From TrEMBL:
<keyword id="KW-0963">Cytoplasm</keyword>
<feature type="domain" description="Semialdehyde dehydrogenase NAD-binding">
    <location>
        <begin position="6"/>
        <end position="151"/>
    </location>
</feature>
<dbReference type="InterPro" id="IPR036291">
    <property type="entry name" value="NAD(P)-bd_dom_sf"/>
</dbReference>
<dbReference type="InterPro" id="IPR058924">
    <property type="entry name" value="AGPR_dimerisation_dom"/>
</dbReference>
<dbReference type="GO" id="GO:0006526">
    <property type="term" value="P:L-arginine biosynthetic process"/>
</dbReference>
<feature type="active site">
    <location>
        <position position="159"/>
    </location>
</feature>
<dbReference type="GO" id="GO:0005737">
    <property type="term" value="C:cytoplasm"/>
</dbReference>
<protein>
    <recommendedName>
        <fullName>N-acetyl-gamma-glutamyl-phosphate reductase</fullName>
        <ecNumber>1.2.1.38</ecNumber>
    </recommendedName>
</protein>
<keyword id="KW-0055">Arginine biosynthesis</keyword>
<dbReference type="GO" id="GO:0051287">
    <property type="term" value="F:NAD binding"/>
</dbReference>
<dbReference type="InterPro" id="IPR000706">
    <property type="entry name" value="AGPR_type-1"/>
</dbReference>
<keyword id="KW-0560">Oxidoreductase</keyword>
<dbReference type="GO" id="GO:0003942">
    <property type="term" value="F:N-acetyl-gamma-glutamyl-phosphate reductase activity"/>
</dbReference>
<comment type="function">
    <text>Catalyzes the NADPH-dependent reduction of N-acetyl-5-glutamyl phosphate to yield N-acetyl-L-glutamate 5-semialdehyde.</text>
</comment>
<comment type="pathway">
    <text>Amino-acid biosynthesis; L-arginine biosynthesis; N(2)-acetyl-L-ornithine from L-glutamate: step 3/4.</text>
</comment>
<dbReference type="Pfam" id="PF22698">
    <property type="entry name" value="Semialdhyde_dhC_1"/>
</dbReference>
<keyword id="KW-0028">Amino-acid biosynthesis</keyword>
């Protein structure tokens, strides 16, 4: 085996960052990753200070971010599990220092300004940011694997976006959806999808024994969905909901078909589209995915039910929001970038 890759993680103290660190620590192609401390880490010097469950394993020191130090230690790949505005400012510097970057935030996912505006970025060098935006590869390997090998910057998809795009891509690409009648996605996520920072809406008292909708017509992942699927904004209605569970996403997606189809034809369209794609599982109708089936895995589970008229279709998509929706997909992207098997370190 050739020399192992040296990677660094900024943001290991978040939920996705922790999952990412755990995967990288066991990945056979990597040296032990360098963990970088954020200002928001409140002076923590070791990851076990934040997550005591890691105590007694020899230590996971958190280092201050220093570009000369990263270069000295031979870091080739930087993972950013940081807030969007931090990633937006750090990525140009990392690229300038010769590193490849996988960014788990939404800072570089969106090509179109009208979709990116929801983040309110204030770039110090707008021209440079626009150029970098154009070069960023949207890191959904099932759709963009051919572009990942040469990518300097990979923008890891959002969790909701992953579940919806993978559910719809085979149908959109084959042109069988009656887009004039619109598409509806009713998606539900566990609380970890909101990140580690507590808010009144994610407090236990607010979430337990409850189910709530939020960000109706204003969720920032919608831009990713319509851009990657080539839809017009008015063709998709997306409503996210907060489930009283720690992790997992279930998206129920309603479409009208432009012609009568059989269940066998629908299943074939999914299986043909994802043939050879390691991390998508297509269920045979009428069996449907459930949140618990994909938890703690990098799978996106897809299933469907077709109405008797052959024109109304419901697609169910389930992922673990912290893995296929974040850290696991980031590692899958790394594997493709470096020409390794997509399941290395993820089995």
């Amino acid at each position: 085996m050739s020399a192992k890759l040296k990677a660094a993680v900024l943001g290991a103290t978040g939920y996705s960052g922790l999952e990412l660190t755990r995967i990288l620590l066991r990945h056979p192609r990597l040296e032990k990753p360098l963990l970088l401390r954020r200002a928001a880490d409140n002076g923590a010097s070791d990851l076990a200070d934040v997550f005591p469950a890691l105590s007694g394993n020899g230590g996971y020191p958190l280092h201050p971010l220093s570009w000369p130090a990263l270069k000295q230690q031979g870091v080739q790949l930087l993972f950013l599990a940081t807030p969007h505005e931090i990633s937006r400012s750090l990525v140009p510097e990392a690229i300038a220092h010769g590193m490849r970057v996988i960014d788990l935030s939404g800072a570089w996912r969106l090509k179109q300004e009208q979709h990116r505006a929801i983040y309110g970025f204030q770039d110090s060098d707008a021209a440079a940011a626009e150029e970098l935006t154009g070069k960023a590869v949207y890191g959904l390997p099932e759709l963009n694997s051919d572009r990942l090998a040469t990518a300097q910057l990979v923008a890891n998809p959002g969790c909701y976006a992953t579940s919806v795009i993978l559910a719809l891509a085979p149908l959109v690409k084959s042109g069988v959806i009656d887009r004039n009648r619109g598409i509806i996605s009713d998606s539900k996520s566990g609380v970890s999808g909101a990140g580690k920072e507590p808010t009144p809406k994610t407090h236990f008292v607010s979430v337990a024994d409850n189910l709530s909708a939020y960000s109706v017509f204003s969720h920032r992942h919608v831009g990713e969905m319509v851009e990657q699927l080539g839809l017009n904004a008015h063709e998709l209605i997306f409503t996210p909901h907060l489930l009283p569970i720690p992790r997992g996403i279930l998206s129920t997606i309603y479409v009208y078909l432009d012609r009568q189809m059989t269940s066998a034809e629908v299943e074939s369209s999914f299986r043909d589209f994802y043939s050879g794609k390691r991390w998508v599982r297509v269920f045979q109708s009428p069996k449907l995915p459930e949140v618990q089936f994909s938890l703690h895995t990098n799978y996106c589970d897809l299933g469907f039910c077709l109405a008797q008229d052959g024109r109304r279709l419901v697609v169910i998509s389930c992922i673990d929001n912290l893995l296929k929706g974040a850290a696991g997909q980031a590692v899958q992207n790394m594997n493709v970038m470096y020409g390794w098997a997509e399941d290395e370190g993820l089995q």
